[in-house]
Amino acid sequence: MKTEVVYFTRTKHTEKMARVVADVCGVEAINITEQHRLFDVDCLFIGTGIYGGKPSAELFRYIDDLPVNQIKHAVIFSSNFTKKDQTELLINNLRAKGIEVYPRRFVTTGSFLFLKRKRPNEKDLVALRRFTIKALQELGGNS
Ligand SMILES: Cc1cc2nc3c(=O)[nH]c(=O)nc-3n(C[C@H](O)[C@H](O)[C@H](O)COP(=O)(O)O)c2cc1C
């Protein structure tokens, strides 16, 4: 199963998370602002923070521009200061592109200004590692 990990970040939390996911998958995490091309991907992990109640416009544009028929499944991981899942719009857009979205999402707390300092922390990253292993197993990987 071919797996890739892409992410958008403003304050580096998602980068930290993406490195954990990529480590489990045995690949390098790709910042969506870097030049790259995806093809024939069975499982695309997508990481993002939440800004003004939703993922960034950059990530929506990136999803719009994903190549057609090259991505089978997407798995979402995210953080925000409410810990409430705010990725619904992203999921709708992925589905509209014919990409199957893994039904469970990883959402954890991400600090913002003086709120929820030092999150995501080591414990959050351990939970993310477990989530990633389970998603890979359920989608047919061998981790
Ligand atoms: C400009 C900005 C706007 C944000 N807006 C929200 C928001 O509307 N709701 C929320 O729960 N968190 C919000 N946050 C918190 C981020 O989602 C959280 O810090 C997340 O961990 C950031 O991930 P990143 O460091 O990868 O960018 C905001 C953070 C920033 C910097």
Automatic annotation (TrEMBL):
Highest rank taxon of the organism: Bacteria
Coiled coil: none
InterPro entries (UniProt xref): Flavodoxin_dom, Flavoprotein-like_sf
Pfam families: Flavodoxin_5
Gene3D superfamilies: 3.40.50.360
Stored SUPFAM superfamilies: Flavoproteins
Domain Flavodoxin: start-end pairs: 5-88
Protein name: Flavodoxin
